[in-house]
Records
---
Amino acid sequence: MRRNHVLHVIKSEWKKTRKTPVQLVTMLLVPMISVLFLSWCLSYVVTLVDRYSGTVYFPEDFSAEEMKEELSESYPDFSFRNGTLEEATTRVSNGKADCALVVEDKTIRILYDSSILTSSQALKDAKDLGIDLSYLLEGEKYYSDAYDLYPEIENIDMSSSADRVIGYIDRVGGVVGMIIFLMMASNAMTLSARTITGEKERQTFDTLVLCPADLSKILLGKELVMLAEIFLSGIIGSIAAIGGMAIWSPKEFDAVTENGAEVAGWFFVIVLLIFAAALVITAIFSVIGSAFAQTKKTSLFSSCGMVLVSISAILPSFIDTGIVKYFPLSDWTPILKSICKDEFTYTPIFTALAISLLLFGLSMILSSGLWERTSE
C-alpha cells in the first residue's frame, strides 16, 4: 500500500513537471548548446596557446630560400627571409611574430617578448632551430666538403597518444565537468524551489499533510522526479561535451577512442559518473529546499550549494592525490585519466556511488525532519 502511495506521488509530481514540446526541446537544447559553446571556447584557447609564428632573418647576401628548403619541413611555423636586426625587433615588438632568429656573421640571436609570448613551445623550437642553423651554416661556410655527412634533422615525438589525451583532460576536463555539474545544479535549484519550497509558498503544504501517505513518502517522490530530470540534463551535457571534442579536437578524440576502446563499458562509466553526481546534487538542493518556506531564501542558500558543487568539481586541479577519485563530483577528471592510462578499475567509481547513495539517504532523513517541523 505504501509503495502505491509512492508511485502515485511520482506520477503526480511528473505531471506537475511535465513539459510542453517547446519547453522540452528548450530544456534539452540549452545545456547542449551551452556545453558545445564551452567546448569550442576551450579548444580555441588550447589551439591559440599551442599555435605560434616565428621568423628567421638572414643577411641580404645570403640565400634564405636554400635554408627554407632545408628546414621548413621540420619547422613549419617559421618563415625564412632576408632582413636586419632592426626589422626583427620591430616585428616582434609589434606582435607580428612570437619570436625571431637573426643570423649574423658569428651570432644567431633569438628575439622574443616574454610579456606577449603566448606559447612556450615557440621558444623551445626557436632554440632547436638555432642549433640546427649553426650546424648548417658551419658546414656550408667552413666544412663544405663534409656538409653531406651531417645527419638529416628528424623530429621524434616521445609522447604517446594517451599522454596527449591526459594533457588535454588536464586542461579542459575539470572545467567541462564543472560546467556540466553546475548546469545540473542549476536545474536542481529551480526544481527544489518549485516543487519543495513552492508547496509552502503556494500554501498547498497543508493539503499534503492531510494525504494518506507520509510526508517522507511524498518528499521521496519529489526527489526521485528531481533526480530523473537532473540526471537527464547531465547525460545531455556529457553527449554535447563528447560531440564538441569530436568536432573541435579531432586528434584528441581519436586518441580517446583508441585508448577507450580497450575499456569495457566506456559509456557505462560516464553514466555512473553522472548518476553519482545527480544523487549528490539532488541531496544538496533537496535539503536547502526543505529548510525554507520562501523561494527567495532558498535561492540565496542555493548559491552556496552552487559554490560547493563548483569547488568539488575542480578539486583535482588543486589536490594532486588519488583519493579525490573516490569523492562524488571530484572523480570526473581522475577516472577519465585512469581510463586513458589503462589503469581503470571500477572500485573508485563504485565507492563514489556508494557515498552518493549514502548522502542521498541522509538528505532524505534531514529533509523529512525539516518538513515535519514545518507541519508542526
---
Amino acid sequence: MSLSGKVAIVTGSGRGLGLAYARELARQGAAVVINDVDGDVAGEAVGTIEADGGRAVAAVAPVGSTEAAKLLVQTAVDAFGRLDILVTNAGILRDKSLLKMTDEDFDLVINVHLRGTFTCVREAFGYFKENGIAGRIITIGSPTGQRGNFGQTNYAAAKAGIVGMVRTWALEMKKAGVTANAVIPVAATAMTKTVPYFQKAVEADERSESMPAFFRRELGFGTADDVSGLVAFLASDEAAGITGQAIGAGGDRLQVWTHPEAAATEYREGGWGYQDLVENFSSLFGDKLQSVGEEFLPLPEGLKPDTQPAAAAAKVG
C-alpha cells in the first residue's frame, strides 16, 4: 500500500465523492480524518472505513474559518501523530441565476469552497513546513470553474478561484517539496440525479450496474470511484513531480486541463484605440472567440431520459 504510514484529511467526506476519496486513501494505507458538519454522518463514514480495515477519526466542523482548519490539522496530529495529505472537498450549492442570487447565496458558497480551501491549505502547509514534510495538497475543482455554467455564478467563481490558488501555491510550495493540484471530477452525485440528461447513467449506477459506454467514454462521466484513484495517486510519493495542475477524471477518461493561454495575438504600432478596434477586431479575432459552458453530445436512442429536460444545460462536478 503506497500510502502506508501517511495521514490524510478529507474535508466534506461524510458521504458522496468525499467519502469515496477517503475510502480509497484508507485502502492505500493512509489513516484518514473524516470531516462533516453532521456528527452522525461523520461517525458512519468512520465506521465504513474501519469496516474496510482502515483507520479513521471524525472532526465535526463546517470548513471556512481558521478555527475549523486548525481543528482539522490538530485532530490528525492528536489521533495519528502527523499529517501528510490534505484533500479539500467540502462544498455546498446555492444555484440561482444572477438576478435571483442573494448576497447570502454568494457568500455561503464562496466561504465554504474558496475560503475553506484557503484556510485549510494555509494551516496544512504551515504544519508541513514546520515539520519538514513533503506534503500533498489536493483541491477539488469543477468543469463549471473551467467553462462556466448557467445559474452558478457563486460556484463557478469559487471553483475557478481554487485553480488559480493552486497555480500560485505550486510556486510558493516548491522549495518545501509540497505539491498542490486540482482534481476536476465528473461523476454521479446527488446533484446529477436531478439532471434528466444523466438519468440512464445514474439509474445504472444505483443498480450497481456498469454505466453505458456512451456516458463513460464519450462524456467522461462515471462513478465516484472513477475519481478516487486519481486523488490517491496525487497523494502518493509517485506523484512528487506533479504540481500546479488541473487534472480531470470521470468514467474512462483522464484529462490534463490547459492553463489559460492567448488564443490569438495581434500587434499595432501605437496601440489599439477605439476606432482601430471597430475597424479590425472582427476580421482579426471574430473566428477566434472562445465558447462558454459545457457542450453535451446528443443522447443515443435508448439512453434518452424518460422525461425530457426543461433546459439544455446540465451541471456536473
